[in-house]
Amino acid sequence: MRVFKFGGASVKNAEAVKNVGNVLKVFGGEEVLVVVSAMGKTTNSLELLAQAYFKNDPSKYTLFKEVKKIHDEIISGLLITKESQTYTDIENLFIELDCELENVADSNFDKVYDQIVSYGELFSSKILSAYLNESGIKNRWMDAQNFISTDNTYREGKIDWEYTQLLISKKLKPIVKKQMVVTQGFIGKNKDNFTVTLGREGSDYSAAIFAFGLDAEQVTIWKDVAGVMNADPKKHEDAIKIDAISYPSAIEMAYYGATVIHPKTIQPLQSKKIPLFVKSFLDPTADGTIVGIEKDAENLPPTIISKSNQALISISSKDFSFIVEDNLSNIFTVFAALKVKINLMQNSAISFIVCLDNETHKIDKLLKNLGNAYNLSIKEGLELLTISNYTENSLKKLLDGKHILIEQKTEKNIQVVV
Ligand code: ASP
Ligand code: MG
To answer: Counting atoms of ligand 1 from 1, which one is nearest the CA of 120?
Structure first.
């Protein structure tokens, strides 16, 4: 059994969808589960729609029309038969969303967000499934929400692994054994029957969850890049593809910001030793990268991961107390309550410094919550660089002329905020 994941770029227009068809004609075959993301930038558009709907702003109607128009163009580019049941199904989905916009929105924005934004994956999977069926690649559309069970953490659903595994292995697996199944990435459902999304770019994670539950032989993430690169080719012209990498190294890379794989993807695969291939849908016969080899090559090139738009917050106590256990525990409690992720931290006797993604709404709340007890200062517009397998030479070259604000170094990795 194999799981194929196609991201937004791979289905951004009719040509792209046709290309997915071609990839599946060659590489598909028996026992394949296809996981697809929303088309192109649909999720961004639906985020705006969710905000407008939540505020009951009349722009919701225009935003809805824009989303519909993009999908209509793709549907007509694919020549999906208007009389078919699948065409009606797609139309009905749009009517459903349109009607939902007339309701008074729930007071929990994150919940509203998930109910609206999840339509992106429903549209794309319906369209892809219909197109594939009409072009002879017989498949069955299934709703991922039937199988992926989460808690109530809207926008960042936590998986109920036991129940999800049971649903996938008992209910989905027999179907995939019989025919290709097309389903959605990014979405699941909680016990109250509401949609819960798994976090932005979470479709890779969905593919891993399905592979875990199916005990799949392998997962392939089809991308518009050749594979996992040692650096962002847009920033480093000498970037090269890594042919093979171990699970731990891939986890580190994804965690520190390599956008090629969603950070949560690898561990479920690692736990069942399911290899992950990252391949180009533009050059599908090329080798790509395999994630999951036993041991990284000795001569792995330095990998350079950059996270931009970082903020550095320095926290010191107002009552002259040292920043030790008590204070750290207070500070961490606030971070956890606000779901703020720390990218790098450093502490000294009198201060605690954290590097975070500069998300204004979260940082404002953080400053408010910590402001009573602590003196805070913030520096914005920074970059976090994570370099693994570095050599002194490569560091010199990469950091030359950069003003380093904090640095953390182990034998294998170095992280700097510049
Ligand atoms: N469509 C979602 C997003 O853009 C999930 C994904 O693409 O993986 O965040
Ligand atoms: Mg996407």
So the answer is: 1
**What is d(CA 112, CA 380) in angstroms, rounded to the nearest whole number?**
31
> Would you say 350 and 308 are in contact if contact means Cβ atoms under 8 Å apart?
no
Mutate to test the pocket of ligand 1, among 43, 198, 221, 264 (most ligand atoms within 8 A of CB): 43
Query: CA 130 to CA 123: how far, in whole Å?
Result: 11
CB distance 7 to 40 below 8 Å: no
Q: Which ligand is nearest to the CA of 199?
A: 1
Question: How high is the mean pLDDT of the chain?
Answer: 95
Residues 186 and 82 in one domain: yes
Q: Does residue 79 register a pLDDT over 90?
A: no
Asked whether residue 279 is assigned to any structural domain, the reply reads no
Q: What is the mean predicted confidence (pLDDT) over 196-208?
A: 97
For residue 342, the model assigns a pLDDT of 94
- The CATH number of residue 391's host domain is 3.30.2130.10
DSSP assignment of 291-351, as one string? Answer: EEESS--TTPPPEEEEEEEEEEEEEEESSS--SSHHHHHHHHHHHHHTTPPEEEEEE-SS-
For residue 396, count CB atoms less than 10 angstroms from its CB and return exposed for 0-12, middle for 13-18, buried for 19 or more.
Answer: exposed
**Residue pLDDT, tens place only, 238-251:** 889 999 999 999 99
Last residue of a domain, one of 223, 244, 266: 223
What range does the domain containing 102 cover? 2-223
Can you give the pLDDT at residue 84?
86
Alpha-carbon separation of residue 247 from 170, 296, 362, 413 (angstroms): 28, 9, 31, 16
What's the gap in Å between 44 CA and the centre of ligand 2?
A: 8
- Which atom of ligand 1 lies at the shortest distance from residue 205's CA? 8
Are residue 51 and residue 140 in the same domain, yes or no?
yes
Q: Whose CA is nearest to atom 2 of ligand 1?
A: 201
39 alpha carbon – ligand 2 mean position (Å): 7
222 forms beta bridges with 6, 279
The answer to whether the beta carbons of residues 157 and 198 sit under 8 Å apart is yes
Among the ranges given (141-145, 213-217, 335-339), the one the predictor scored with the smallest mean pLDDT: 335-339
User: pLDDT tens, 167-182?
Assistant: 999 999 999 999 999 9
pLDDT band, residue 411 (cuts 50/70/90)? confident
**Atom of ligand 1 at shortest distance to CA of 38?**
1
pLDDT-based confidence at residue 334 (cuts at 50, 70, 90): very high
Average pLDDT over residues 277-287: 97
